[in-house]
């Protein structure tokens, strides 16, 4: 119907001025029903894929087809981090923690606080975080996240190219235009060469969104901490980030043994650590170690 066509075209104008009404409708008509499943695509999803490829229909179509196949095969919306839930709640330290000045989601992760270095399990946890954020992201143009990665305690054992490439490809292929910025805090020089080596295997648009900054303690390469953090976050969020990072640095030996984001979420208390030390009724791998 003409009214629907005009509405779809109006929605599409933000995607790219070079995408015609005809091509947008053709792409949307083809993919609004996901082949082989009961899923359907929102107009905003098609528009986002077009925006990711700057209005290039063939590229957007390829990216969309790859993502649909991946979602049907993997069912990411059902994924939970089995390593954290079944083995040790301290396995990963990656969580949605707040919002930036524009209302975009803030994800924070600390490499030094994560115990698990496995490629597949880290990707699984990353998918869980991304999927949990999808329903709560605000409308375009703020339907993105700012990802802050603290390189505190980074070592050679963390330089897993498979994991780095897999995560970067996730952002580019399956969650295009979701990553607003990835801010790497306090990354050592040894990581710079590693990042240059894996960058060619990732979406170039995603790679351009990565920024290096010094840590709150002044260590690492890149721009000054305050300069970049003030650009994205208000005073309260910045104060939380600084407190979190400095606490993990100064009390790492103690906190790495007890601190867990998932444990804090389970107990509905964002400040409590080592909850399994008090929860004597439940026995598993992670509290047997704490009791030793």
TrEMBL record:
Listed SMART domains: SEC14 (SM00516)
UniProt cross-references to PROSITE patterns, sorted A to Z: CRAL_TRIO (PS50191)
Domain CRAL-TRIO residues, every copy: 97-254
Entry-linked CDD domains: SEC14
Single GO MF annotation: phosphatidylinositol transfer activity
Classification via Gene3D superfamilies: CRAL-TRIO lipid binding domain
InterPro entries recorded: CRAL-TRIO_dom (IPR001251), CRAL-TRIO_dom_sf (IPR036865), CRAL/TRIO_N_dom_sf (IPR036273), PI_Transfer_CRAL-TRIO (IPR052578)
Domain of life per record: Eukaryota
Annotated protein name in UniProt: CRAL-TRIO domain-containing protein
Upper classification of the organism: Eukaryota, Viridiplantae, Chlorophyta, Mamiellophyceae, Mamiellales
